[in-house]
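Why Shikimate 5-dehydrogenase? Reviewers of the renewal asked for a concrete example.
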Amino acid sequence: MTLLNKDMTLCISLSARPSNNGTRFHNHLYEALGLNWIYKAFAPTDLSQAIAGVRGLGIRGCAISMPYKEDVIALVDRMDPSASAIDSVNTIVNDDGVLTAHNTDYSAIAQLIERDRLDPAASVLLRGSGGMAKATAAAFRDAGFTRVTIVARNERNGRMLADLYGFSWVAEVGDATADILVNVTPIGMAGGAEEHTLAFSEDAIAAASVVFDVVALPAETPLIAAARSAGTPVITGAEVATLQALEQFVLYTGIRPSAEQVREAEEFMRAGNA
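Here is what the prediction returned.
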């Protein structure tokens, strides 16, 4: 591993509950490509001061995770169309003190919808109403899905998101079922208050044709584990994390690694959660 030195380029991530996923993924690629770069995750105590540090310290890139994807908008200089289209940010690129916000969550979700050939005629229950939910809802809308119900306890945010994309809204899942179940909340996330909770009922999971959990840590969330037990095909948050992190890497470095390098970085990332 490259020793720390004054000429290193630094990239960071900001999250309420940081994981080692991005740290392992990015640093593995830096090493594989011989780059004098380093990546570190942080849990900021003050978001505005953290972003000021990105600008003032010349930090090249900054990944933004829940719950900061919308709050950070007021702190950047420019919004790339990928972020402005959905008012949600997951990536900041620093060009000599000018901070440009991007969103690679959307492209990751869109790629997985296409890869798994999800049927646009299918019904969808999408649980969540934050920045990541915006990116996910936009990807489903743009893929041709119309039978989407947003499930959100926060009525204001839930209705706003549903109205934005022409979907319906309900406050609770209840006994509702759908062809595709999508969790875009912290339910099932390691270290959270609901880390052992199912985002959807076991009956809904068994009735679904696909279960999609955006939570990346752990890769085997309670929802994913229940879906596998029921024989329901899954799309995991770890897959989302890999795709969005890859696009962040390209934005920061201007280099697109080979498929083999990405596969090895993904394996290294997941080994850290074993």
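The chain has two domains: 9-103+239-271, 117-232. This is the kind of structural detail the renewal will allow us to pursue systematically.
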